[in-house]
Amino acid sequence: MREIHLTKKDFRVDWFSGTGAGGQYRNKHQNCCRITHIETGLVATGQAGRDRPTNQRHAFTTLAKKIIEHYRRIDDPERERINETVIRNYHAERNEVLDKVSGLRQPYRLVVVDGELGDMIEARKKAIELGQIIDG
User: Fold this and answer.
1) Are 68 and 19 in a shared domain?
2) Is 87 helix (H, G, I), strand (E, B) or coil?
3) How many domains does the chain have?
4) Which of 55, 62, 101, 110 could cross-link with 46 by S-S, CB 3.0 to 4.6 Å?
5) Confidence of residue 31 (pLDDT cuts 50, 70, 90)
6) Could you tell me if 71 and 122 lie in one domain?
7) Residues 49 and 99 both lie in one domain
8) What is the rounded CA–CA span in Å between residue 136 and residue 125?
9) Rounded to whole angstroms, how far apart are CA atoms 45 and 32?
10) 114, 73: one domain
11) Do residue 75 and residue 90 come from a single domain?
12) pLDDT of residue 54
């Protein structure tokens, strides 16, 4: 993991008036904060609080999380692909579990409540061996 060094020059801070509930105080005062990380173009806003320091702190915290995740994706693109892969869909209301690769559908109660994953695992192994990809 790389080290990220940021200074004030890396950000653009804009102040604006809020909208919505809060009355005159929120609509007349420019206490809402929008912070932009210049290099990546990532943006975060803080407008939940009534004062500038609270909103700025919230925006910086949110933006810091976005920047860290951005650089993690750059350093390890495989990690993003793995994290976004849906393995199975579980639908209790429809009493169904769907394996996304093999296409196997089984009763929710059998898989989740009784813990019978053997058929799901075997179907997935066979589908991967055959190179099947089924979107469901």
Assistant:
1) yes
2) coil
3) 2
4) 55
5) confident
6) no
7) no
8) 17
9) 7
10) no
11) no
12) 93
Q: Which residues pair with 32 in a beta bridge?
A: 16
Average pLDDT over residues 78-105: 76
Alpha-carbon dihedral sign for residues 102, 106, 110, 112: positive
At 48, the amino acid letter reads A
E runs forming strands in the chain: 11-16, 32-37, 43-46, 88-91, 96-99, 105-106
Angle at 88 between CA 85 and CA 92, to 5 degrees: 140
Take residue 58 and report the two structure tokens written for it: 């919230």
Q: In the block, which residue shows the tokens 């210049």?
A: 38
Residue-level pLDDT at 77: 64
93/34 Cα distance (integer angstroms): 42
Residue 2 in domain? no
pLDDT (0 to 100) of residue 9: 94
Of residues 107 and 75, more confidently modeled: 107
